[in-house]
Amino acid sequence: AQKVTQAQTEISVVEKEDVTLDCVYETRDTTYYLFWYKQPPSGELVFLIRRNSFDEQNEISGRYSWNFQKSTSSFNFTITASQVVDSAVYFCALRDTGGFKTIFGAGTRLFVKA
Amino acid sequence: EPEVTQTPSHQVTQMGQEVILRCVPISNHLYFYWYRQILGQKVEFLVSFYNNEISEKSEIFDDQFSVERPDGSNFTLKIRSTKLEDSAMYFCAIPGFSGGASDTQYFGPGTRLTVL
Description:
The complex is a heterodimer.
Chain A: E1 3-5, E2 10-14, E3 19-21, E4 24-26, E5 32-39, E6 46-52, E7 59-61, E8 64-69, E9 74-79, E10 88-96, E11 103-104, E12 108-113
Parallel strand pairs in A: 2-12
Antiparallel strand pairs in A: 1-4, 3-9, 5-6, 5-10, 7-8, 8-9, 10-11, 10-12
Chain B: E1 4-7, E2 10-13, E3 19-25, E4 31-37, E5 43-50, E6 53-57, E7 65-68, E8 75-79, E9 88-95, E10 105-107, E11 111-115
């Protein structure tokens, strides 16, 4: 069965701090996709990144970076120099390459205080 | 990022009533997905729809739910007889620009359903 675990329910940081959101996944499939979505207070789900299981290169996009480690089944997300606008719920998600449904973790609520 | 709109943005209904939620992608898509999010909880898959047929559904998607593409562009989710526990945000999703099942799913703004 597929499962995504985000052990951190809430994180609170002060602006300009770095913060890492953890994600651990389980799947029996050999090929799959991993995602991060952001849900700001307005409620929409905003796509941030997708990673294919065969591509373990880490990725950086501005202040965001992602660390994919297949050996530990983890796909962690780091925000560098956090800003108040980063305050949101962040969801890690998984989908196998042959499937249609995306499995979401429970989400991590990030509070960034000024 | 492909665009999709959902109507209504908020629907309030009485228990036992039927509701229809609509999803309208800006460009033509063959794949559609519905998810729901009970307040404060995780996003859960309901159903995927390809070429006018259900391709996969979850255990949540029971006989009370149905999906269809009534006019070739709109994509609807119907709940026949709503229950209090159907109160949630319902998201429609479409694949990215390649339009295929393997593509990233992009979500609409959601419809908040409140069942009284």
